């Protein structure tokens, strides 16, 4: 037991001492390792065994534009930034909103899209922030949805789920009154449920960005410049139209 604890502590210390790969090291290796969740459609998800989605295509385009081979890693959402700080991969693209709290732990790129957290319920259910009074709300754990729902006074209870799709399922099963999730995901879910669900108001707005390990400024610079290229050369517009039928870049 004691040995196991010492081993764990050593791992934690070694992890925190390890250096993230700089841009020069990544370039020399020829491969960039990108992490995402793989359970957040239409941004990052699995189609059978194939990892796909707007952020997966965008991340792959960025890696290729940088002249690298791309290797994808998937992790539960709540582990992504922890693994980043343990140097398990070079950057994360998983719909993280830029928040002051997260900025203490990691460095964010320029935003790759702008969105908001939306209130979704069954037809006839809560639609506005005021309607949330006394209601049960489902959100994915570790998200800005949780943080923002907790700020609303009078909410009955908040239930957290490991995956966003589990929170949606709880709404469909009638185990909660409301699901708060991304407005673009919500548009798809509402459409897929064919008249059973309704999209209410936005609880908050956010800017979504890629994350690198804190202090990895050489990689951050390359990611920002590659993103700028994709935004201006038509690649971003094409992918955005493919997944959303509109351009979701920050205006
Ligand atoms: N945008 C929200 C946040 O910043 C949710 C992100 C969830 N991402 C995911 N891959 N499940 O917390």
TrEMBL record:
Keywords: Signal. One of its GO terms (cellular component) is cell envelope. Residues 31-247 form the Solute-binding protein family 3/N-terminal domain. Gene3D superfamilies: Periplasmic binding protein-like II (3.40.190.10). Residues 1-20 form the signal peptide. It is found in: Cell envelope. It comes from the Bacteria. InterPro entries: SBP_3_CS, Solute-binding_3/MltF_N. CDD domains: PBP2_peptides_like. Belongs to the bacterial solute-binding protein 3 family. This is Amino acid ABC transporter substrate-binding protein.
